[in-house]
Design brief:
The complex is a heterodimer. In chain A, 81% of the residues lie in helices and 0% in strands. Chain A is mostly helical. Chain B has 9 helices and 9 strands. In chain B, helix 5 crosses helix 6. Chain B starts with a helix and ends in a 5-residue tail after the last helix. The chains are: A mainly alpha, B alpha/beta. The structure holds adenosine-5'-triphosphate and magnesium ion (MG). Adenosine-5'-triphosphate binds next to helix 3 of chain B.
């Protein structure tokens, strides 16, 4: 940073305080990091206490410690990782297939008027069908094999990514495009240096939205027709009334969802480092 | 389409331009029009017409700009100034008439002709140096030489320390200086500036004027500046033309050598006459 920035930085009130009262500031920082976890940990404690005191029946809602034991047991037996891995793989491959088709079609329709006129109306019509409405048909087509899950997840993630990529390309600053042309950029350079980076923030919005749909589709599909995966694990446990495992698989879906979200945010932070939104504070 | 004929007379009334004199004023050797001058491009416009479906936006414009000359164009909003610059830089095409820069149609020699816009138009996702590199010639290979050209251009606009930062962290004046560096990095022979300082505060504008003048004198390119600020036109240009409804209504030569004293009586007199021409249509130059 330049000299002028340094001058402004030293003028900030926090700088002298930080050195004078180091420990206090550290405590404050730790408390700041811990804050988001306060609520879930508190809920777990109250839940445990409520079941232990008999306010909630064990048969309806297993206590957190029982869920932890179930997690340990399935982990040791290897069952946990098998199902977790299968679900994660399904989610990722569906995202990859549906996402890349949506991304490419979004680019094509954003750039080429011909391509847009040929396909956009049809796509907008299909968009109005909820992807899970296809489930009965898909079971007939694919049985309970991998194809069914892949198909449904792909269709589900396709639309948010397609629509947001298209929107992103359409809304790239016209003035920048004109500048690129005035500076002699070829169509390929114009795409690489202006259209694509300009559309990227919008593509990420689509990706984040797609992740939500991806998990939802997968949960439903695995619960209704599968022989492996977290949804299957939950369904099987329900038949034998092992509620700890049911709760465990629900929690694992939450963990998977959170991991996907964190990964996307990290990717976004890296790719969109230029945006003032992500400027280092 | 009112009174097209009545106003045509104005075009013929303007003083005959002598490119050689302007070039001498700018301290440059004169060459035959169409020949390559070592530094600045020669511009020749004959019978230029342009309309966007409605009345003519540019109407039978004849204009010569000598190599190395600094020309300013002033006129009311909507009189066709930007359109003229866009045609000159190959961003738009004339309806009829002849436009040549160094004897060639603009658009075929992109890197020799650069346009600076009112807005900086920097790529937010490229560093300052990356943005300046956009202005390199298309056949330039990335490497030491390109890096050096970028560094030099940034030094010319007094921003060498900002090479690695994102444009979003710059002030308005700094952004416009980066845009100037981007326009200069290919060493253009013609630099067109469309109200480049219009969005800046008065103080920054003065600093930028001095900067533009300095690089202009060091590099010797031909400059065409569109501005709303008559004082700016008189402070910078060798010649000021007044555009009125798509025609050249008047033109004025400014002979004072640089650096010009601020707020001199001579300058004030020329400014008054230019304003008179803008608002009352005609004045003998
Ligand atoms: N692409 C276009 N399509 C239709 N009309 C246009 C277009 N560009 C310019 N015009 C019209 O041409 C006329 C001249 O426009 P131009 O931008 O050249 O004016 P200007 O002198 O630069 O004005 P200002 O000082 O406000 O920038 C205006 O009436 C404008 O509406
Ligand atoms: Mg304009």
């Amino acid at each position: 940073m330049s000299a002028s920035d340094t001058i402004y930085a030293t003028g900030l009130a926090t700088t002298p305080d930080a050195s004078a009262q180091g420990p206090t500031v550290d405590l404050a920082r730790i408390a700041g990091h811990a804050l988001p976890f306060l609520l879930p940990v508190g809920v777990l404690l109250i839940w445990e206490a409520a079941v232990a005191a008999g306010w909630i029946s064990d048969a309806l809602m297993p206590r957190p410690s029982a869920v932890a034991v179930a997690a340990w047991e399935t982990l040791v037996s290897g069952e946990l990782f098998t199902h977790l891995g299968v679900s994660a793989l399904r989610a990722l491959s569906g995202l990859l297939i549906g996402g890349s088709i949506g991304f490419l079609l979004g680019l094509a329709n954003g750039i080429s008027d011909l391509s847009n006129r040929a396909t956009d109306t049809t796509l907008q019509m299909i968009r109005n069908i909820p992807n899970l409405a296809l489930l009965p048909l898909v079971i007939v087509w694919f049985g309970i094999g991998e194809g069914a899950k892949l198909f449904l997840v792909s269709i589900g993630v396709f639309f948010p990514i397609y629509l947001n990529t298209l929107h992103g390309i359409r809304n790239v600053d016209r003035q920048l495009i004109e500048m690129g042309k005035a500076y002699g950029m070829s169509p390929a350079t114009l795409f690489r240096r202006i259209l694509l980076p300009g559309a990227l923030p919008s593509v990420f919005v689509g990706l984040r939205y797609a992740l939500g749909i991806m998990w939802l589709t997968l949960i439903v599909a695995e619960t209704l027709s599968a022989s492996s995966g977290l949804g299957y694990m939950a369904m099987k446990a329900r038949e034998f009334m092992i509620l700890e495992v049911v709760v465990l698989s629900i929690l694992l879906y939450a963990v998977l969802g959170k991991v996907a979200d964190i990964a996307t945010r990290a990717l976004e932070r890296r790719t969109l480092a230029w945006s003032p939104v992500y400027a280092k504070s | 389409m009112p009174s097209l004929k009545a106003e045509r007379a104005i075009v013929h009334e303007r003083t005959d331009i002598e490119p050689a004199a302007a070039a001498r004023a700018a301290g440059h050797v004169t060459l035959e029009p169409g020949l390559r001058h070592p530094d600045g491009a020669a511009v020749r416009i004959r019978g230029l017409n342009k309309s966007f479906g409605g009345p003519r936006v540019l109407d039978q414009v004849d204009l010569d700009i000598a190599p190395g000359e600094f020309l300013a164009i002033v006129g009311k909003s909507g009189c066709g100034k930007s359109t003229l610059l866009r045609i000159l830089t190959g961003l738009d095409t004339p309806q009829s008439g002849e436009v040549s820069v160094d004897g060639r149609t603009p658009g075929n020699n992109a890197a020799d002709i650069r346009l600076m816009f009112q807005e900086p138009r920097l790529l937010p996702w490229a560093s300052v140096a990356g943005n300046v590199a956009v202005g390199l010639r298309q056949d330039a290979h990335p490497g030491n030489e390109a890096d050096r050209a970028v560094a030099e251009a940034l030094k010319a606009v007094q921003l060498p320390e900002k090479a690695g930062v994102w444009p979003a962290t710059l002030s308005g004046g700094q952004k416009q200086r980066v845009a100037l560096a981007r326009a200069l990095v290919s060493r253009p022979r013609l630099l067109a500036l469309d109200e480049p300082l219009g969005a800046l505060d008065a103080l920054t504008r003065l600093v930028m004027q001095a900067l533009i003048l300095r690089v202009k004198q060091e590099t010797g390119f031909t400059a065409v500046l569109v501005t709303h600020d008559v004082a700016e036109a008189v402070a910078l240009a060798d010649r000021v033309i007044v555009l009125e409804a798509g025609r050249i209504a008047a033109e004025f030569r400014v002979d004072a050598p640089h650096p010009r004293p601020t707020a001199s009586e001579e300058a004030a007199r020329i400014e008054a006459r230019i304003l008179e021409a803008i608002f009352h249509g005609r004045t003998a130059a």
